[in-house]
Design brief:
By secondary structure, the chain is of the alpha/beta class. It is about 35% helix and about 15% strand. The chain contains 8 helices and 8 strands. A 4-stranded parallel sheet has the order 3-4-8-7, with helices on both faces. Strand 5 and strand 6 form a beta hairpin. Helix 1 crosses helix 2. It is globular and about 45 Å long.
């Protein structure tokens, strides 16, 4: 059981693969100083529906770049950064794992939600459904702290990563494919950008 917004939520009833929504839900339980830049449309829309916050930098149509943008943000300032990416997105930007493995500061965590499909474009299978292991790729790229877990164990592993002040982490949350039908995010991209910049303290005049 987890508590968010005054409500108790049973996220993980049993040891089985979850769909994306409950995994995104547990990311709302982390400390408020953490930044979460979700990647493509479906995860961003679901996270907005669950718990919109100014420290969520919704990336509208930037498939594959959440990990790169989050890494840059973690280097530019000292507060905790969590990038949420999908397996399909990481497969489109594999070189980011090598950069993370060699340059990621201790305030950076990459959460890969691996459902084995391109959920935003029609649930076509990705290669993680076949022979590709993102855990092995991340380790081979130089990432020192790599955790692969069931979706229901994501919250505990995120807490572990955030509390570790000496290492960056890559967490691969294995879930089953499937998205909840939600409306598009009704926020102007400029508003998303400016409120996020204000939250991280980069624009004192806002």
């Amino acid at each position: 059981m987890y508590k968010t917004g005054g409500r108790l939520l049973k996220v993980c009833p049993q040891k089985e693969k979850l769909i994306m929504r409950p995994v995104l839900l547990v990311t709302t339980l982390i400390p408020p100083q953490a930044r979460l830049p979700p990647e493509l449309s479906e995860p961003s829309q679901e996270l907005y529906k669950i718990d919109d916050q100014p420290n969520y930098f919704y990336m509208l149509g930037s498939m594959g770049l959440s990990s790169s943008i989050g890494l840059g943000l973690s280097i530019a300032q000292e507060k905790q950064v969590i990038s949420i990416d999908g397996d399909g997105s990481v497969l489109m930007n594999m070189n980011t794992l090598a950069t993370i493995g060699n340059r990621a500061p201790v305030n950076y965590t990459l959460l890969i939600i691996d459902n084995g499909s391109y959920g935003s474009t029609g649930d076509q299978n990705t290669f993680t459904k076949e022979n590709t292991s993102l855990k092995e790729v991340a380790i081979g790229a130089g990432c020192k702290k790599v955790i692969e877990c069931y979706g229901e164990d994501t919250a505990d592993n995120l807490k572990k990563a955030i509390n570790d002040k000496e290492h960056s982490y890559v967490i691969i949350s294995k879930i089953k494919s499937g998205n909840i039908s939600v409306d598009p995010i009704p926020l102007n991209p400029i508003l998303i950008r400016e409120r996020f910049r204000k939250f991280i303290g980069q624009v004192p005049y806002l």
